[in-house]
């Protein structure tokens, strides 16, 4: 089985149970959240041997994270437990019914967290060393690089290491609060060391100073492919040889956008690992993102295998006719329905 290792911080996540402002909330739901572990769970759901490498505190939140990831089929043998530093925490405030255009917001409490102490010594951990050596894919993000100087060194060391048959992907995952007062130009340097770069078009302006495809490819000449996620419009893969592939996003009734980018990354990267072309891989990314966009939480369940195959193998016209709502894929195109229900 192909193996994937995702490296980064996972935090405890608190969310008001009712859609009210945080100061009026009397109940908070406890979950977990982290870009890299979201990708790890998505890759596990896509049928890969998936692992998360990171650090948590020796506290209830840390235990919650390890148990949750394990329950989703993600290996945690490479996770270190810090006896002194706490597990990071963030609070996700949902969009308010009184202000539907306001969107959801996030408050981070991660300074001095256990994960921020990841460093080059993490690579010397025998369990981590084994996982990285055996991995077909190593996935990183710009979030880890912003946590501390030591985390930046760790990220750069992994990206600069000899490939030995591995693919290393880097999702920019721009977080303005993390880069405040820091030199964001390191993101370009890190991204250019990767084999696959994923970046949202909205993120590219902040991280690289441009949203122009040609300019982005010029700024990052070395990766085999740069994938630009253009939210509800499309996703574009720009290969090093100049080949351009674009796949339109599915029609979706969006409930909550948080986590959709990580789901897209998992879907796309799984396609690459399975040897699919750019168009098929981008479609897998769109399907996974749509599942997350239509549910509460950071990851939505994939459709059944028969329906998933029918969706991914659909013609362009069939693809354009698909609509996703409340986690359900529907289409007015009868041929797609017939193929998904065939014995």
Provide an overview of this structure.
The model has no long low-confidence stretch (mean pLDDT 91). The chain is built from 14 helices and 18 strands. Helix content is 37%, strand content 24%. With 343 residues, the protein is an alpha/beta fold. The longest helix has 16 residues, at 278-293. It has a 9-stranded mixed sheet with strand order 6-4-1-10-11-12-13-14-15, with helices on both faces.
Provide the descriptors you would attach to this structure in a database record.
14 helices; 4-stranded mixed beta sheet; 343 residues; 18 strands; 37% helix; 9-stranded mixed beta sheet; alpha/beta
Write the layout of secondary structure elements.
Blueprint: E1 3-7, E2 11-16, E3 28-33, H1 35-45, E4 49-53, E5 55-57, H2 60-71, E6 74-75, E7 80-82, E8 89-93, E9 105-109, H3 126-134, E10 137-141, H4 142-147, H5 149-160, E11 167-171, H6 176-179, H7 186-193, E12 196-200, H8 201-208, H9 213-219, E13 225-230, E14 234-239, E15 244-248, E16 251-252, H10 260-273, H11 278-293, H12 305-312, H13 316-320, E17 322-325, E18 328-331, H14 334-341
Parallel strand pairs: 1-4, 1-10, 2-8, 4-6, 5-7, 10-11, 11-12, 12-13, 16-17
Antiparallel strand pairs: 2-3, 8-9, 13-14, 14-15, 17-18
Helix pairs in contact: 1-10, 10-11, 12-14
């Amino acid at each position: 089985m192909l193996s994937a290792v995702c490296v980064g911080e996972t935090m405890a996540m608190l969310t008001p149970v009712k859609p009210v402002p945080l100061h009026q909330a009397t109940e908070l739901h406890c979950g977990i959240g982290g870009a890299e572990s979201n990708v790890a769970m998505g890759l596990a759901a896509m049928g890969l041997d998936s692992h998360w490498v990171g650090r948590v505190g020796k506290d209830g939140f840390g235990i919650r994270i390890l148990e949750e990831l394990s329950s989703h089929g993600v290996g945690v043998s490479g996770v270190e437990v810090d006896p002194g530093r706490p597990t990071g925490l963030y609070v996700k405030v949902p969009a308010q019914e009184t202000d539907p255009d306001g969107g959801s917001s996030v408050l981070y409490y991660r300074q001095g967290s256990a994960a921020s102490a990841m460093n080059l010594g993490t690579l010397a951990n025998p369990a981590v060393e084994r996982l990285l050596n055996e991995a077909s894919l190593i996935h990183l993000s710009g979030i880890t690089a912003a946590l501390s100087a030591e985390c930046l060194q760790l990220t750069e060391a992994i990206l600069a290491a000899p490939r030995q048959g591995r693919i290393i992907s880097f999702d920019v995952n721009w977080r303005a609060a993390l880069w405040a007062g820091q030199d964001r130009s390191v993101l370009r340097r890190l991204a250019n060391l990767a084999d696959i770069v994923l970046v949202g078009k909205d993120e590219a302006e902040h991280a690289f100073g441009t949203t122009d495809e040609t300019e982005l490819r010029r700024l990052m000449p070395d990766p085999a492919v740069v994938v630009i996620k253009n939210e509800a419009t499309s996703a574009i893969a720009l290969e090093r040889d100049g080949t351009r592939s674009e796949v339109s996003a599915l029609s979706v009734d969006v409930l909550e956008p948080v986590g959709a980018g990580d789901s897209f990354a998992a879907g796309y990267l799984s396609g690459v690992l399975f040897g699919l072309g750019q168009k098929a891989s981008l479609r897998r990314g769109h399907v996974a993102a749509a599942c997350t966009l239509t549910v509460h939480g950071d990851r939505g369940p994939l459709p059944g295998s028969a329906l998933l195959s029918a969706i991914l193998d659909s013609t362009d016209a069939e693809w354009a006719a698909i609509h996703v709502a409340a986690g359900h894929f529907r289409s007015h195109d009868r041929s797609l329905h017939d193929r998904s229900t065939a014995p």
